[in-house]
Amino acid sequence: MADLVIRPEIEHANVDALRDAYGKMQAFVANDNRSWVYWAEIHGFNRYDCWHHARVGPGRGTEFVYDLFLPWHRAYLASFDHVAREQNPGAILPWWDWTSQASHDHGLPPSYTDPEVNGQPNPLASGPTPDMPDDPARRTRRFPGDPSELPSMTEAHPELGLNLSVNDILALPQFADFTTQLQNVHDYIHSWTGGTDANGVGGDMGVIATSAFDPVFWAHHAMIDRLWYLWQLKWGINNLPPDYLDKPLAPFSYVVRDVLDINGLGYDYAVTTSIAGASPQGGGDG
Amino acid sequence: MARPFTAPTLDTSKLDAEFTRADIEFLGIDHAGSSYEGRVFLNNPEADEQTPRAREVGYAGSYFIFGHGGCLGDVGHCDVKPRDPFDPRPGHPLTPGRKVLIATEALRRILPVAEITITVVPLIRSVGPKSGDDENLVKVNAIRIITYR
Q1: What's the domain range around B106?
Q2: Shortest CA distance to B98 belongs to which of B36, B32, B28, B147?
Q3: Does A203 touch chain B if contact means CB atoms closer than 8 Å?
Q4: What is the complex's ipTM, to 2 decimals?
Q5: pLDDT tens figures, B67-104
Q6: What architecture does CATH give domain A5-269?
Q7: Do the chains contact at B66 and A161, CB–CB below 8 Å?
Q8: What is the CA A210 to chain-centroid distance, rounded?
Q9: A180 in contact with B at a CB cutoff of 8 Å?
Q10: Which of B40, B71, B126 should be substituted to probe chain A, the one whose Cβ sees the most A Cβ atoms within 10 Å?
């Protein structure tokens, strides 16, 4: 059996491998099923297969609410990650911890903001978009907010509109409650990253149609997926309404039950570990 | 500029005021256009973009909408039509959504009270290539307050 791939925190990612893999995907013609545009279009323009916002409508009884936001994006990221690692085996999807001190100091990770690397566009800073109505093909753009306005793991910030900290959200025991509140922070980060410039031009991360063309989309969603994983460790891997289990996650060949166990999908998340070692045999360094 | 939205006044006389948690639930919320922050005010129908996010003026919290970014398809592409029960496709991506604002402290400040008026002040955070009707950004089918012991 193949080893699990360990998704790293973005500060520990193999940046060279990510740039190599994403650069290759961005260079493929759009209709190649390995291309950047092909994968981003699954989420937004022009396919919109993604799941966001619990859907409300008539159904059994008087109404239904389904929210496949978390399982759908897990299937999406797992599939994308395989394509990226085919281009470079070191290009393991990292997570961007927007609650970290580094994020609160600098905002977006420097590896994703340097506009050029070796005189070429940095494939982590922007990605190609296709021709869209009234918006010809171009590179993605961002107008991020102030780093001090990123969410906190431990503190609520009602002055930013965030009544719950991330830990408050992780403490919600019901899946429906958890996914609704986590999605709210997810929505906040999309707008924080995309933003709008002084002329009213929107950043691509800010709306569903264009967000996945921005390379940081994938690291943001790895963070969301990791938070779901942490919640699962606390409240149960299979903690989900039973009628979700066989819902298909189109266009991927998964149903919801297939994506509940991330080890079954071939990956895990690294933990930040600090070790102070000493050898009782005198072989240590102290 | 997006206009504030004030819902019909809610009769809250029968709400259980002995709660440990209180939610404001938005059902059938539209997310087709720009991304925005919806600042939710209680009993302050005059609230606008300049109104501070402060409890003293009825601020209960915000919800955030990651918007679709407008319609980039042809005529009718973004019209939400109910699916036939035998239609194998997932629901339309623009099927109206649901947002829940956990507003325990804000509701604790004013309950018990006979009625509450909820006003949403939208602030556009990001626009898409064709975001459309930003003036009437807040569209919602129903709002309710739920308290839990």
Answers
A1: 5-72+95-148
A2: B28
A3: yes
A4: 0.96
A5: 999 989 889 898 988 777 777 777 888 999 999 999 99
A6: Orthogonal Bundle (1.10)
A7: no
A8: 14
A9: yes
A10: B126
